[in-house]
């Protein structure tokens, strides 16, 4: 059972220590924001929110972070947690008493507010997991080609509702995607020569083709929210109303009549979106958490098992 203020007697200033470290990192690069947010999601959906995604591979173990679905996690997310952890462990009272999983949860809360999103109290008390394998990632993360039923059932397998899934997808109001993730929508869609996904806004499709020409350098990435790429806002839902969702998994939320009313309501009200997002992030943060010593511990180095 997680709770707010879990560290009140263990490391009373932990939240401000983490916030300062994250703010410093944010001043160096904005990528800190989307990188940390996505890292938290990918952590929670594989083995629960237990910092298993941060563990580095060793000679005898290929870790989660080296699964193909995790190779595009930006290094700045990992670096944010490592730096915040170092700041926490620099305080005598706190050294080795705050889990990497909780530091990631706090850092995620902090990057959302640094980007103009809502602030919220974060629940704490997670232990760090004891295993991280590449194989455990298989089938656990959503693909950008997913339709509504696939999205809903994958999230449901983590105890996350369809409404929460739609709110959490609003995280795509920030950050980047590599061209390969949506190339199927702008070139030869459905295997038909020269076809473009009809659910994609035509002007936007042409812009995407310009930024992502055929045979583009695989390192090229584009903003997922072309309108306010650095602001955490409800623009994502307004984009969906214009056919400007980057992935099939984004646009389907507006095009499927079952999820459309929610998309339209959050496009109409940023307050409604913000409060839904906070509630959904809190539920995401509870997925598969480990709280008993048989299930986990507090890693001294977030990238290495103790
Ligand atoms: C609903 C199903 C989802 C799918 C199919 C999906 C898929 C993707 C893909 C393909 C990328 C681009 C990766 C790249 O090419 O570098 C991406 C980026 C991102 N995703 Fe998702 N995602 C989903 C849900 C979420 C959720 C729930 C969150 C967080 C709460 C999230 C946060 C992000 C962020 C912040 C980025 C940008 C990362 C960066 O700029 O470094 N996504 N997502
Ligand atoms: Ca995990
Ligand atoms: Ca935005």
Automatic annotation (TrEMBL):
<feature type="binding site">
    <location>
        <position position="46"/>
    </location>
    <ligand>
        <name>Ca(2+) 1</name>
    </ligand>
</feature>
<feature type="binding site">
    <location>
        <position position="48"/>
    </location>
    <ligand>
        <name>Ca(2+) 1</name>
    </ligand>
</feature>
<feature type="binding site">
    <location>
        <position position="43"/>
    </location>
    <ligand>
        <name>Ca(2+) 1</name>
    </ligand>
</feature>
<keyword id="KW-0479">Metal-binding</keyword>
<feature type="domain" description="Plant heme peroxidase family profile">
    <location>
        <begin position="1"/>
        <end position="306"/>
    </location>
</feature>
<dbReference type="InterPro" id="IPR033905">
    <property type="entry name" value="Secretory_peroxidase"/>
</dbReference>
<feature type="binding site">
    <location>
        <position position="228"/>
    </location>
    <ligand>
        <name>Ca(2+) 2</name>
    </ligand>
</feature>
<feature type="binding site">
    <location>
        <position position="233"/>
    </location>
    <ligand>
        <name>Ca(2+) 2</name>
    </ligand>
</feature>
<dbReference type="InterPro" id="IPR002016">
    <property type="entry name" value="Haem_peroxidase"/>
</dbReference>
<feature type="binding site">
    <location>
        <position position="50"/>
    </location>
    <ligand>
        <name>Ca(2+) 1</name>
    </ligand>
</feature>
<dbReference type="GO" id="GO:0140825">
    <property type="term" value="F:lactoperoxidase activity"/>
</dbReference>
<keyword id="KW-0106">Calcium</keyword>
<keyword id="KW-1015">Disulfide bond</keyword>
<dbReference type="InterPro" id="IPR000823">
    <property type="entry name" value="Peroxidase_pln"/>
</dbReference>
<feature type="binding site" description="axial binding residue">
    <location>
        <position position="172"/>
    </location>
    <ligand>
        <name>heme b</name>
    </ligand>
</feature>
<feature type="disulfide bond">
    <location>
        <begin position="100"/>
        <end position="302"/>
    </location>
</feature>
<comment type="similarity">
    <text>Belongs to the peroxidase family. Ascorbate peroxidase subfamily.</text>
</comment>
<dbReference type="Pfam" id="PF00141">
    <property type="entry name" value="peroxidase"/>
</dbReference>
<dbReference type="GO" id="GO:0005576">
    <property type="term" value="C:extracellular region"/>
</dbReference>
<comment type="function">
    <text>Removal of H(2)O(2), oxidation of toxic reductants, biosynthesis and degradation of lignin, suberization, auxin catabolism, response to environmental stresses such as wounding, pathogen attack and oxidative stress. These functions might be dependent on each isozyme/isoform in each plant tissue.</text>
</comment>
<keyword id="KW-0349">Heme</keyword>
<feature type="binding site">
    <location>
        <position position="225"/>
    </location>
    <ligand>
        <name>Ca(2+) 2</name>
    </ligand>
</feature>
<dbReference type="InterPro" id="IPR019794">
    <property type="entry name" value="Peroxidases_AS"/>
</dbReference>
<dbReference type="GO" id="GO:0006979">
    <property type="term" value="P:response to oxidative stress"/>
</dbReference>
<dbReference type="GO" id="GO:0042744">
    <property type="term" value="P:hydrogen peroxide catabolic process"/>
</dbReference>
<keyword id="KW-0964">Secreted</keyword>
<keyword id="KW-0408">Iron</keyword>
<protein>
    <recommendedName>
        <fullName>Peroxidase</fullName>
        <ecNumber>1.11.1.7</ecNumber>
    </recommendedName>
</protein>
<feature type="disulfide bond">
    <location>
        <begin position="179"/>
        <end position="212"/>
    </location>
</feature>
<feature type="disulfide bond">
    <location>
        <begin position="11"/>
        <end position="94"/>
    </location>
</feature>
<dbReference type="GO" id="GO:0020037">
    <property type="term" value="F:heme binding"/>
</dbReference>
<dbReference type="InterPro" id="IPR010255">
    <property type="entry name" value="Haem_peroxidase_sf"/>
</dbReference>
<comment type="similarity">
    <text>Belongs to the peroxidase family. Classical plant (class III) peroxidase subfamily.</text>
</comment>
<keyword id="KW-0575">Peroxidase</keyword>
<feature type="active site" description="Proton acceptor">
    <location>
        <position position="42"/>
    </location>
</feature>
<keyword id="KW-0732">Signal</keyword>
<dbReference type="InterPro" id="IPR019793">
    <property type="entry name" value="Peroxidases_heam-ligand_BS"/>
</dbReference>
<keyword id="KW-0873">Pyrrolidone carboxylic acid</keyword>
<feature type="binding site">
    <location>
        <position position="52"/>
    </location>
    <ligand>
        <name>Ca(2+) 1</name>
    </ligand>
</feature>
<feature type="binding site">
    <location>
        <position position="142"/>
    </location>
    <ligand>
        <name>substrate</name>
    </ligand>
</feature>
<feature type="disulfide bond">
    <location>
        <begin position="44"/>
        <end position="49"/>
    </location>
</feature>
<feature type="binding site">
    <location>
        <position position="64"/>
    </location>
    <ligand>
        <name>Ca(2+) 1</name>
    </ligand>
</feature>
């Amino acid at each position: 059972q997680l709770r707010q203020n879990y560290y009140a007697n263990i490391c009373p200033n932990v939240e401000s220590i983490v916030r300062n470290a994250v703010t410093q990192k944010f001043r160096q690069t904005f990528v800190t924001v989307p990188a940390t947010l996505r890292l938290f999601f990918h952590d929670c959906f594989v083995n629960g929110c237990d910092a298993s995604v941060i563990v580095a591979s060793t000679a005898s173990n290929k870790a989660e972070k080296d699964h193909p679905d995790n190779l595009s996690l930006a290094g700045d997310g990992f670096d944010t947690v490592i730096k915040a952890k170092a700041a926490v462990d620099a305080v005598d009272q706190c050294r080795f008493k705050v889990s990497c999983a909780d530091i990631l949860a706090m850092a995620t809360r902090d990057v959302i507010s640094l980007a103009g999103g809502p602030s919220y109290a974060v629940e704490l008390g997670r232990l760090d997991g004891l295993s991280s394998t590449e194989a455990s990632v298989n089938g656990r993360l959503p693909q950008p080609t997913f339709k509504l039923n696939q999205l809903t059932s994958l999230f449901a397998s983590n105890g996350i509702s369809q409404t929460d899934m739609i709110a959490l997808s609003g995280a795509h109001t920030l950050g980047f995607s590599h061209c390969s993730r949506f190339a199927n929508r702008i070139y030869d869609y459905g295997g038909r020569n020269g076809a473009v996904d009809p659910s994609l806004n035509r002007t936007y499709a042409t812009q995407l083709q310009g930024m992502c020409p055929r045979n583009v350098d695989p390192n090229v990435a584009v903003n997922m929210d072309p309108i306010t790429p650095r602001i955490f806002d409800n623009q994502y839902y307004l984009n969906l109303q214009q056919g400007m969702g980057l992935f099939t998994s984004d646009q389907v939320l507006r095009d499927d009549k079952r999820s459309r009313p929610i998309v339209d309501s959050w496009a109409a009200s940023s307050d409604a979106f913000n409060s839904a997002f906070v509630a959904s992030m809190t539920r995401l943060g509870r997925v598969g958490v480990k709280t008993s010593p048989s299930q986990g511990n507090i890693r001294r180095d977030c990238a290495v098992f103790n």
